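Appendix B. Worked example

We walk through a single record from start to finish. Start with the input: the chain for Branched-chain amino acid ABC transporter permease, Nostocoides veronense, length 570.
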Amino acid sequence: MKLTLPTIPDALREQHASKGWPMALLGSVLLFVSGLLSWSYDASILGDISISFWPATLQLFAMILGAVGILLALIHKGPLQGLGNWFDSALALRALGTGSLLFAVYSLTAIAYEAGGLVNINPGGWLALVGALVLTIGARFVPQRTLRSFAKAKANSTLEIVVIVILMALVLFGAAYVLGQDDPWVFVGFLLMAGVAAMALARAGLFTWLGHISQRHRKVLTLAAFAVAFLFPFTQDGSDANMSIATQVLIFAATAIGLNIVVGLAGLLDLGYIAFLGSGAYVAAMMSNAASATIGWKPPFLVVMLIGACVAATLGLIIGSPTLRVSGDYLAIVTLAFGEIFRLSMFNLDGNNGPDLTNGPNGIPGIPDLNLFGFDFGKPHTIAGFTLGRFSNYYFVLLLLIGFIILVFTRLNNSRIGRGWVAIREDERAAEAMGVNTFGLKLLGFAVGAFLAGLAGTIKAHQDTAVSPDQYIFLESAFLLSAVVLGGMGTVAGVLVGATILKLLPEKLRFFSEYRLLLFGLLLVVMMRVRPEGLIASKRRQLEFHEDDEELASEVQQDHLIDASAEAAR
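Next comes the structure step. The output line below is what the pipeline stores for this chain.
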């Protein structure tokens, strides 16, 4: 029997591995403890981080990162070691260490900038930097383990439902907290902390597990998500400022989901999609009770919504019929031209160069608030002791609208029509050879997407109280497309996340307004390099970008089996 001795590098690796876990745990503890100490001498900056044992803003964020690190370390070795067979704590600790170090450097930079120098940083801030550095070094030597597949795990319905409820509650309180932060340094710090924690948990495999349980409890997840969205206005204490941002996000998201049909499912690049939103808005404005409204017929608003959506769908058919014979860059150029034609037409329909419909560049101001079934959307209302302002009223209507749009999108995506769109996106010639009516389906995609955008536009006109051609420029179409690409083409959750990011960041980072386009460009470049399938990608697109990932292919197959079983049960 031949004995082989470990080589020197292997021996050193084992020696470092034995020290890696204690260092990672120590760094996490130091990071957590740093949040209990004072970070700055100046009490007037960053939400007062000068008090010990009363953590606020950056101190609290450091404690959260430290707590995540302690949890991951105990999963690797400790009382939670059993979970280490399912979650990769080694990769998670490495991601957490790097991210925590970045967060610590950012925090010290913020304190130095606001307080006027590094001399104003108290020991708590330096301890956070030391803890993050120790965690980063220790995590590099924590060995990985062979993990079990979640597809083979036994389901515990009660535990899974509790996890979904807790996750949705964290989303609700996190959204309320971040919108309540007026300091841009604190806002970015929260996003950085949340991003680092999410990346670490994703590396551990938590989101993969959440994907499996969401497949098994789709109805519970959907109900919990809408419950969180419904309860959000009650967390804002009647603040119209934050609810105004929320309504803009919902309008933007509803429009982006319609664009997702065209781009994400059918694979048609549309650079003039904002025109469909504008057409719905102009129809609602022209039929409103505004003094400058140009149409004398004033039907009920529900009829106006249908008319505005149908006008937008008709425009989709008009632009689609002669142009969908082309594809790729040529289609993009044509749709870009259509968006500009719509904007210039709104300028010229002023009674001088054409019919008097839009009042030209002046637009239609003074659009009154909606009044549905005696409910005045312009007045605040008190419900269960909570005051809901004007934007909260529109928020609930938009929530119903986006629920309807999501229902339409998911039904179409799971139908024969949706499969036809996907076949066209993957290979139009092959789809046509298999008998798919490619031109008809592409035209239908344009019409349905435009219809949904028109619905959102009719509400937008009343919520904005005015419409003008300058609201519907090419840049807005580019932002809509960016939301679809950033979030994940072909998915609902991805588009919602992308729309939220692209609408929320400019509102909270106004000091960065001159460099907003640069920021978005860098964000998209990073996404294309790091995660080209989007933040929340469909399994199909993940396979396209990661063809060699056997584990992902196994997960997709398992998800298909779960879907088939659920369909058979129904």
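Two observations about the output. Strands lie at 371-372, 375-376, 381-383, 386-388. The two ends are 61 Å apart (CA to CA).
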